[in-house]
Description:
The chain is of the alpha+beta class. It has helices at residues 6-33, 40-57, 67-80, 87-99, 117-126, 169-176, 188-196, 198-206, 235-248, 288-301, 319-329, 359-367, 370-382, 424-434, 499-504, 508-520; strands at residues 107-109, 134-139, 142-148, 160-164, 211-218, 221-228, 251-256, 261-267, 275-280, 306-310, 340-342, 384-386, 392-394, 412-417, 438-442, 452-454, 459-461, 468-470, 474-476, 493-494. Helix 10 (288-301) runs parallel beside helix 11 (319-329).
Amino acid sequence: MIKINQKNYTIVYLFLLLILLGSCSTVNHYNRKIKIPISSENLKFDIDFAYGKLQKIHPNLYQYISKQELERKFDSLKARLDTPMTSKDFYFQLSPVISSVKQGHIRLIPLTEKLKTKEKSLAKKSGKTPLSQFEYEIIENILIISENNSLDSTIPVGSEVIAINNIHPQEIFSKYRNTFSSDGYNTTFINKRLSDEFPFYFYFENGICDSINLLVKYNDTIFSKCISRDKKTHGKRDNDQSKIDKREKTIATGYDRKTNSYLQQLTFPSSDSSIAMMKIKNFSDGNFLTFFHKSFKFLKRKNIQYLILDLRDNPGGKIYSARLLYSYLTKSDYYFLDKFEVTSRTSILYDNYLKEKPLFVKAILITVGLPFRLLYMGVSLMNVKKEANGKFYYNTINSNLLHPKKNNYNGKIYVLINGGTFSASCLISSNLSGSGRAIFVGEETGGAFNGNVAGTLPIFTLPKSRLKLRFGGALIQSHYKSENIGRGIMPDIEIKTTREDIISGNDAELTRVLDEIKKEK
Length: 521
């Protein structure tokens, strides 16, 4: 037994102090380093490194751009790099070339300054940054406030943001619009990502602000507001909202305190008890097994004739969750996906198993999780086969003949979609559309009808600039295909949200579906 005395306390104190000082020193070093210009030779090295990884692992690199054109872009960039530049400046040079591949899951991730432990704690206590207190929509290249979660209720929903600290949103749009892409030739996804990530783009460009001067326009009135960090003094309002959500729900799982809403929810959108609406915010988080089991059992018991599936702004997630939902919506046996195409027998093993994790987590995964990791790798390798066409394919349960669930839904289905409908939410939409099982309302999805390149999403750190390159390692295609190459799932009834809809609180897509159902009755 160790005797605790003043000497022991001093040793422990000095040890913790050394760790703290080491951490601060590492953060300071990192923040200084990302501002140091990098030689053109090293930048060219990173370009070759990035292209080499894409050629080795990306299974459909030249689907939307020819090899000759992509190589021309990389060579042209290298020819232009004749002076040193920082990683931030390099990001704006390289990211447009990377995004020209036109695969929505591929992305170059910029470097941001790190905070010390004390700074992180202080920022957390200070609350949300000013721009993060609003939700936005971009309509005709205008930034519109679609939701006001700030303490200043005098800023009406539907207000146009003219400037933030004298900086026009359009300046941010033009600079960041080509740093990422959608799947193929789709355009609806671009505005969705720009509006969703607008606070990040603004702060990356101008630094994090504890307060901003917001110049907005509502109707013909232009006014200025000072918005400061939200110090979380509105807890009562959040609690009241959560009570409303709980009271109105029918079946729901995954309550999200940040947004005061459920991740999965089944409700009645009108007084007509024959119509139910299922909202799925994403296919990553929540207890899908329980939610789908309860929901479809309820739909069958209540003999619901119309189901509205809301996949708007659903960025995707786990294929398993999307397939599970489809198994409740289809009426017959089905194939959900084709076999995954990969570049080699081992490329499927590239993932983020250890990357981006703290050191102590890595230690646990290496020791405790190693046997399970080896088992996973072995099973994965066994499922990769080289076929007669010379390509490698990864076989999963998604490409087998599957059966509907016991309480599968047999009524009419409407699906609400928009540019934020992406990845796994497009895989289920492709199957629903291709099988003729549903009617789609809204705007073209951000993800492609014919699938995407995702699966494992390895992140590679470029050696010299330290920028991070993320992209998918498997070509994942729906069982059904569209001849409209490079486009998303097209709506049967096209509806575009207007500024007037935002101001009035009108859900245009839902209203149209309810009107269509009325006509049928």
